[in-house]
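SEQUENCE-TO-STRUCTURE ENTRY
===========================

Backbone structure tokens: a row of integers, each naming the local backbone shape at its residue.

Task: work out the structure tokens from the sequence, keeping to the layout shown below.
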Amino acid sequence: MRVSSASSTPPALAAAAWAVVLLAALRSDVTLAATVSSDDNAGLSPTMPPTPPLAAPVPAAIPPAAVLSRRLLRPPGADVAGGGGGGGGRGAGVRTHRVDDGCAGTEDIAIYQGRATALPSGVPAYTVDVMNRCAGGDDECAIAGIHVRCGWFSSVSLVDPRVFRRLGHDDCLLNDGRPLLAGETVSFEYSNSFPYRLSVAVATCVAPAAP
């Protein structure tokens, strides 16, 4: 008796058919996923690195302006300013001078003050130099009648009145009114608890032979 194999054929065909369907479905899913991914990325621009900030421009270095120094013609040690209620506030205790030729009166007279040795009692002392700084010769630079602003000038120690004396408030006479020639200096010392502020008030250009 022969057994026919026709009964086993339909299940095998059915299995093969299902396999084909599954493969087709899997391929369809893969194709659809690729299409969706392509559509999602279609409108996006590629990612770009951020642009680094521009460096601020560095200004060019400007060379410093040259500084011109000014030198004042004054002797060393002339560092005492007027002060202490001495009056005569219309001038400094130390003044500079000009270097032009020809007599200019008050502008040619320079007054310098400095500290001197104190008295044994401890009262401070000061030295005063009054100089004629006219740059011309004696024929044109004699200056007389020199009056100095001096407040209520007084001194514990004696000051020669022929050199410097007070005529009234804020008015002292230098060198007894006699001429001071070019380059000449009249000096004296006084002592008080404070330095007086001294400045030239009047000085007249005269002939050298004038009294």
In short: The radius of gyration is 54 Å. The first helix runs from residue 9 to 40.
